[in-house]
Design goal:
By secondary structure, this protein is α/β, with parallel strands linked by helices. It contains 14 helices and 16 strands. Strands 1, 2, 3, 4, 5, 6, 7, 8 and 9 form a nine-stranded mixed sheet that branches. Strand 13, helix 10 and strand 14 form a beta-alpha-beta unit. Helix 3 packs across helix 4 and helix 5 crosses helix 11. Bound molecules: adenosine-5'-triphosphate (ATP) and magnesium ion (MG). Magnesium ion binds next to loops.
C-alpha cells in the first residue's frame, strides 16, 4: 500500500568530503529544514546514509510547487523527488497504481531501480525486468524503451524507505550556505552581479549585499525597487541576506565642483571603500563583484587592479573569465534575468562620457587626495545614511 508522500533529497559534492563531511551534512539539513518550514509546519528533515527524507502529509499542489522552487535553488542539493512511500511487501501493487496514474497514451516507459539497501534480496536489474512485466500485464502501458521512455518509473529501495516516483528535479549542486564564511556582494541592478552572488553562495558563503543609490531611501519605498526584488529572489539561494542601500550623495557633493579625470574608477574605488567599511563592521571576510574581464571600460585589467588596491580586503570575482552569454544563461536559470533587464528607476551609476581604460593606483591616490579633504568622513557618512533591509528564504523580513 502507498503510505503517503515523501520528499527524497540527494546531495552531490558533499559526498566527496572527508572527515568533516558530517558538518556539511548537518549544515544542509538545517538549511533544508528552515526553507521548508516557511511552507510546511511540523515536518522534520531526516538525515540518512546518502540522502535526506521528509514525510509530508497530503500536500496541496501550491505547497508542492513552492517546496520544489525552494529546493531547486538551495545549494548542496544535487537532485530531489516527490515520491510515494510504500512498504516492501507492496512494491508491485504500488508500482501498478503509480503507473496507472502516469499513463501516457501510446507512450513508452522504463523502470529504474536503485537498491541502496544491498540486503534487499533481488538485484536491481532483476527487479526492473520483473516490474516492467507486471506493468505491461496490469496497466494500459505496452511499450518499454530503455533510451527514449516518455515516463521513467523510479523505485528507490533504501534501508529506511521504499519510494516510487517519476520525476527527478535537478538542484543547483555546490555546497550548503553557511559552510563557508560570510561575504559582502556589490550588487548593481545589472545582469552580472546577481549571478556572481549566486555562484559564491553556491560555494557555501553566506552573502549580504550592498547597493549604491543616487538618493537616500526609506525602507518603505525601497522594497519596491528592482535591486530589492533581486535580493528577494537571490535569498532563495542565500537563505538569509541583509541588503545595505547606501546613498552616494556625500560622494557627489564632494566631487560636484571638480571635473574628475578617471571619474568611473574613482567612483568604483569609493564603492569598494564603503563596502570594506561595512564588511569589517559586520564580519564579512571578503567582497564580491560581478566584474568580467574587458567587458566594459571599467573592467580592463588595469582598472580592476586599481580597484583592488583601494582595499586590503580580498575581492572575489567569480565571473572574471565568463562569456556574456554564459552569464545570461545562468541569470535566466536562476530567475534574476527578467528582473535585471527591467529599466532602472532606483539607481543610476556614475556615467562617464569618456571612461579611462588605463589607470594606476598612485595617480588615483593623488586625485583622491586632491578631491576629498576628509575621505574617511565621506565614507562614514555614507554608511550612516544607509537603509538596511532583510530577506529570508525568498521573502522580506518585516
Ligand atoms: P552588472 O551587470 O553587475 O551591473 P556591469 O557589467 O554593468 O555589471 P559595471 O557597471 O562596471 O559592470 O559594474 C561592475 C561591478 O561593480 C558590478 O558587477 C557590481 O559588482 C559593482 N557595481 C556597479 N554598480 C553598482 C552599484 N550601484 N551598487 C553596488 N555595486 C555596483
Ligand atoms: Mg552595471
Amino acid at each position: 500500500m502507498i503510505d503517503g508522500d515523501i520528499l527524497i533529497i540527494h546531495y552531490g559534492e558533499i559526498g566527496l568530503k572527508g572527515k568533516n563531511q558530517v558538518d556539511f551534512l548537518r549544515c544542509l539539513q538545517r538549511n533544508i529544514q528552515s526553507a521548508l518550514n516557511r511552507y510546511l509546519k511540523d515536518v522534520s528533515v531526516k538525515m540518512h546514509r546518502g540522502y535526506y527524507s521528509v514525510d509530508i502529509k497530503n500536500p496541496d499542489s501550491e505547497t508542492v510547487n513552492a517546496v520544489m522552487g525552494i529546493l531547486s535553488a538551495t545549494p548542496g542539493i544535487s537532485w530531489f523527488a516527490m515520491a510515494k512511500k510504500t512498504d516492501r511487501k507492496s512494491i508491485e501493487e504500488s508500482v501498478i497504481s503509480v503507473a496507472k496514474d502516469e499513463y501516457v497514451e501510446g507512450g513508452a516507459f522504463v523502470v529504474r531501480v536503485n537498491r541502496s539497501d544491498k540486503s534487499y534480496p533481488k538485484k536491481s536489474n532483476e527487479l526492473e525486468k520483473e516490474l516492467g512485466s507486471v506493468i505491461i500485464n496490469s496497466t494500459s502501458w505496452q511499450n518499454v524503451s530503455l533510451k527514449n521512455a516518455d515516463t521513467t518509473i523510479y523505485i528507490d529501495i533504501y534501508k529506511e524507505n521504499t519510494c516510487i516516483y517519476t520525476k527527478r528535479y535537478r538542484g543547483v549542486g555546490g555546497i550548503p550556505v553557511g559552510s563557508s564564511e560570510k561575504v559582502l556582494s556589490l550588487l548593481s541592478g545589472g545582469i552580472d552581479s546577481p549571478v556572481a552572488s549566486f555562484l559564491i553562495a553556491k560555494r557555501g558563503c553566506g552573502v549580504d549585499f550592498i547597493h549604491f543609490t543616487a538618493t537616500p531611501m526609506q525602507h518603505k519605498e525601497a522594497i519596491q525597487y528592482k535591486v530589492c526584488e533581486l535580493v528577494k529572489k537571490l535569498s532563495q539561494t542565500t537563505l538569509r541576506s541583509t541588503l545595505y542601500l547606501v546613498p552616494y550623495t556625500h560622494y557627489q557633493l564632494a566631487t560636484m565642483e571638480n571635473r574628475v579625470d578617471y571619474d568611473l574608477i574613482v567612483f568604483r574605488r569609493f564603492m569598494i571603500r564603503v563596502a570594506e567599511t561595512l564588511a569589517k563592521q559586520n564580519n564579512h571576510k571578503a567582497l564580491v563583484c560581478g566584474d568580467n574581464l574587458a567587458q566594459v571600460a571599467s573592467q580592463t585589467l588595469s582598472n580592476i587592479i586599481s580597484a583592488d588596491k583601494a582595499t586590503d580586503m580580498s575581492i572575489l570575482r567569480p565571473l572574471i573569465g565568463y562569456d556574456k552569454n554564459e552569464i545570461i544563461d545562468i541569470a535566466k536559470k536562476i530567475g534574476t534575468y527578467e528582473i535585471s533587464i527591467e529599466p532602472y528607476k532606483d539607481c543610476c551609476s556614475i556615467v562617464s562620457q569618456n571612461p579611462k581604460t588605463k589607470s594606476n593606483h598612485n595617480r588615483l591616490s593623488e586625485i583622491e587626495n586632491r578631491l576629498f579633504e576628509n575621505y574617511q568622513k565621506i565614507i562614514d557618512d555614507s554608511v550612516n545614511d544607509s537603509t538596511v533591509i532583510r530577506y529570508e528564504n525568498g521573502s522580506l523580513c518585516e
